[in-house]
Amino acid sequence: MVEVQELFKRIVERCQGNLSRSERAKLYLHRNEITNESVLSAFRVGVADDGLLSALGDDEKTLLRSAGLISPRGSTSLSSSGLLIPTFDPREPESPVGFIKQFEAQNKHAFVSVPRGVACGFDIGGQNRVVIVDTPLLGLRLAQFGVNGVVIAETPEVVPPLGSWFRGRALLIASHKQAGSSALKAALEGIADVQTVLIPSAISRLSAHTLEALGVNSKPAAELTQSQIVELVQYAQARLAAGDGLDLLRQNGCDCREFIETYGVGYLPENFHDALPQEFKSVLSGKISGGCLIVPAMDNSGIACDVACVGGKESLFQQPAGLIAPKAATSFEHVLVTDSFSVAAMHFAQGKRNVLLMRGVSDARANAERLALSVKSAEVISECIAEQISTALEAAGSIQARISPLRTNPPSCPAKAALCCSASASMRRPNERPLRPPTCLTLLK
Fold it and tell me: Which in 108, 109, 176, 331 has the greatest CB count within 10 A?
C-alpha cells in the first residue's frame, strides 16, 4: 500500500500542475460555478494527461493495475478529459488511496480506481463536524460557499471502513437527491447518528435553516495573523531550548546546534493548544497538531510568516508561504535543494551550509523567482518529486537544476522524514507536562 500511495502522490502532483495550464478544465469549472483556487488546491483537484502512463515504468503500471486504474485490457481513465480528484483515509489526509473522475459529459462521476476513501481537504483531521456529500461538484461548491469539514463519499461502500473516524463526530449528509442521502445514511447505520439536508441546484438560494445546519456563519471567520505565527514559532523554539522534543531531533539525525539555529527549528508538545488563548485556538483549529518539530518559513523581511511540521503539514495555509532558511539562498550561488528534513540535517552535518529545505513542488514554484535573484544552480535531492522541483526552479529562467540520487542515510537519519509525510505516533512523547502560557516566550539562543 505504501508504494501505491507514493505513486499516487506523484500522480496527484502532476495532475494539479496540469490543472493550472488547462483552459478546458478551467472553463468546465467556471461553467459549474467553481472558481476558488484555494478550494481546488485543498481537495487536490487535477487533470490527467495523455503522457502520464507513458512516463511510468512497468512496475508502476503493475501497481496501477492492482489499484484498478488500468484495466486488464490496458484501458485507463487517466486521460486529459475531465477532473481527477484523489481520495484519502481522513486519518491520513496526505496519502491518497484512490481517485474519482468527474467527467465533463452530463457531469457524471465515478471511482476510476478501487473504491476507497473520501475526497477531503488537508484540514479534515481537525474538524469535529463533518458534512458528507455524494457528488464531487456539490462538495466543491459547498466548500467554496464556506462550509467546513466537507468530505465527498463517491459511493456509500467507502463509508463503513472509515466508521471509527466518523464515530464521535457531528455528521450531516448533504445531497441534491433523496436517494443519495438515504444511501449514505444507510451506510452510517450503527456507526453514528446523522442529520440530512437536501441542497437545491442553486446554492445561493439556501434557506436560513439549511445554512444553519451546514454551519455557515455570516460573521467572517478570524484569520491567523503574522504576529500570532511569530508567537507560535517563538514558543516552539523555547520548548526545544528547554529540552522538549530532543528525541525527535535524534530520530531525524539532527544534533547540530548551528543547523537548529539556521533553520529556526522548534518543538510543539502534544497538548500545546491547552496553553493558547481561546481566540488563538480558534484560528489554529485544524491547521497544526502537536507532538512534532516545526520549521518556520520567512517573508522577504526575515519575519516568520508560515510554519511547516516535520512529518506533518507543510504549511498553515492552502499554499506554502515564505521560504525556509532564506540565508542559504542569499549566501550561495549553488544550493542543495531537498524536501527531506533529515537529508538537510545530514548534509549540514557534513559541513555543507548551502542546503535549502523546500516543502514540495508548490514551495519551489512559489519561490523560484525569489531564489533566482542570487542562486545560479541547484542540485535537487528528493525521493519522489525531484524532477518536478527541478522543473519549477528552472521556470524562473536563470537557475540551472540537476537531480542527484537520494543516498542512504545513516541509521540515525530516517530516509523518509520528508516534510509532507504523515507523522508517526511512535515519534510523539507521552505525558507532556502542562505548558507555560505563550506570553512567556524566549527565543532559542
Answer: 109
Domain ranges of the chain: 2-214, 226-427
- Say what angle helices 2-21 and 23-31 make with each other, to 10 degrees: 80
Distance, in Å, from the CA atom of 361 to the CA atom of 373, rounded to the nearest integer, reads: 19
At a CB cut-off of 8 Å and minimum separation 6, what does 265 contact?
A: 237, 240, 249, 254, 259, 293, 294, 295, 444
Stated length of the chain: 445
| pLDDT per position as a tens digit, 37-66 | 889 999 999 999 888 887 888 888 888 888
Buried b (16+ CB within 10 A) or exposed e, 33-65: ebebeebbbbbbbbbbbeebbeebeeebbebbe
- Give me 174's grid cell: 448533504
User: What are the backbone angles phi and psi of residue 390, rounded to the nearest 5°?
Assistant: -60, -45
Coil, strand or helix at 82: coil
In 3-state terms the chain splits into helix, strand, coil percentages (rounded to 5) of: 40, 20, 45
Output the CA–CA distances (angstroms, integers) from residue 392 to 144, 150, 189, 360, 388, in the order listed.
28, 31, 47, 10, 6
| Angle, helices 2-21/386-394, rounded to nearest 10 degrees | 20
Instruction: Determine the straight-line distance between the first and last CA of the chain, rounded to whole angstroms.
Output: 43
Nearest-CA neighbor of 296 among 338, 267, 324, 269? 324
Please tell me the CATH superfamily of domain 2-214, with its number.
DNA primase, catalytic core, N-terminal domain (3.90.980.10)
In what helix (H) or strand (E) does residue 26 lie, and over which residues does it extend?
helix 23-31
- Report pTM: 0.51
Percent of the chain with pLDDT over 70: 89
pLDDT per position as a tens digit, 105-137: 889 999 999 999 999 998 998 898 999 999 999
Measure the CA angle with vertex 283, ends 277 and 288; round to 5°.
95
SS3 letters across 315-347: CCCCCCCCEECCHHHHHCCEEEEECEHHHHHHH
- What is the C-alpha separation between 311 and 333, in angstroms, rounded? 29
Comparing 409 with 7, the larger pLDDT belongs to: 7
Going by DSSP bridges, is the β-strand pair 334-338/355-357 parallel, antiparallel, or unpaired?
Answer: parallel
CA nearest to 119, candidates 12, 2, 10: 12
Between CA 391 and CA 402 the distance in angstroms is 10
Phi, psi of 381 (to 5 degrees): -125, 115
Q: For residue 330, give the 3-state DSSP assignment.
A: helix
- Of the two residues 212 and 157, the one the predictor is more confident about is 157
Tell me the C-alpha distance between 38 and 318, whole Å: 6
Exposed/middle/buried for residue 75 (C-beta within 10 Å: 0-12, 13-18, 19+): exposed
Distance, CA of 97 to CA of 80 (rounded, Å): 21
